[in-house]
Design brief:
The longest helix has 33 residues. By secondary structure, this protein is α+β, with helices and mostly antiparallel strands. The protein is built from one helix and ten strands; from the N terminus they run H-E-E-E-E-E-E-E-E-E-E. The chain has two domains: 34 residues; 118 residues, Rieske [2Fe-2S] iron-sulphur domain (Rieske Iron-sulfur Protein), CATH 2.102.10. It is flat, with a radius of gyration of 31 Å. Strand 2 and strand 3 form a beta hairpin. Bound molecules: FE2/S2 (inorganic) cluster. The site of FE2/S2 (inorganic) cluster has 10 residues, from loops.
C-alpha cells in the first residue's frame, strides 16, 4: 500500500504559491512592455533608412551650361530625397550653394551658410564679394575672409564638385558647425 508524502511544514500554502506566480508573471510582462520604447528609440537611431539628412551625399545641383566660364557665382538650391520608414519625398530643399565656373570646366562650390553664426551670405556683384547681413562678414569669391576683423572664424565652406557626363555638376553637400575655426561636419 502506497503512502502519500507528508506535507512539508516549511512550504507555503498552495494559494500563496499561485499569488507569487501571478505577481512574477506581471512583473516580467510589465518589464518587457517598459523596455519596448527605449529599444524602439534605439532602432530609430540606428536604422539608416530613417536618417533624413543627405549630409555628405553627392547631389546633382546644376547643368554646366547654366554657368558661363569666368562668370559670377550663381546660387542654386540643393534638393535631395528624404526617406524614412514610411515616406519618400523627392526634391526636398536641404541647403544651397554658390557655384562659379572657373577655367577648364572647373567649378567651385561654396555653402551659402556663414560660418560665424549660420546666416546666409549674399553675392554682391558690385563689390564682387559675399556679404553676410547679420554681422557684416565679407568673403572673396573663393570664400576667403576679406576683413581682418571678420567675425567669421573661417572662410566660407567649400564643397567637393564632380562633373559627370561632361555636363552635370554634382556637389558633395555638407553643413559644418558654426563658430569653429575648423570645418566640423554636422
Ligand atoms: S552670421 Fe555671418 S557674420 Fe555673423
Amino acid at each position: 500500500m502506497e503512502h502519500s508524502p507528508a506535507p512539508d511544514p516549511a512550504a507555503p500554502p498552495a494559494g500563496d504559491r499561485r499569488e507569487f506566480l501571478t505577481k512574477a508573471a506581471a512583473i516580467a510582462i510589465g518589464g518587457a512592455i517598459t523596455a519596448v520604447p527605449p529599444v524602439a528609440g534605439l532602432c530609430v537611431f540606428l536604422d539608416p533608412l530613417r536618417r533624413e539628412s543627405p549630409a555628405g551625399a553627392s547631389v546633382l545641383v546644376a547643368s554646366l551650361s547654366a554657368l558661363p566660364e569666368g562668370g559670377e557665382p550663381r546660387k542654386f538650391p540643393v534638393l535631395a530625397t528624404k526617406v524614412d520608414a514610411w515616406n519618400r519625398a523627392n526634391n526636398v530643399p536641404v541647403g544651397a550653394v554658390y557655384l562659379q565656373r572657373l577655367k577648364d570646366n572647373q567649378v567651385r562650390a561654396l555653402n551659402v551658410v556663414c560660418p560665424h553664426a549660420g546666416c546666409f551670405v549674399n553675392y554682391r556683384p558690385g563689390e564682387n564679394d559675399f556679404f553676410c547681413p547679420c554681422h557684416d562678414s565679407r568673403f572673396a569669391t573663393d570664400g576667403a575672409i576679406l576683413d581682418p576683423k571678420s567675425p567669421s572664424p573661417r572662410p566660407l565652406d567649400d564643397l567637393p564638385v564632380e562633373i559627370r557626363k561632361g555636363t552635370e555638376v554634382w556637389v558633395t553637400f555638407q553643413n559644418f558647425r558654426a563658430g569653429e575655426h575648423k570645418k566640423i561636419p554636422v
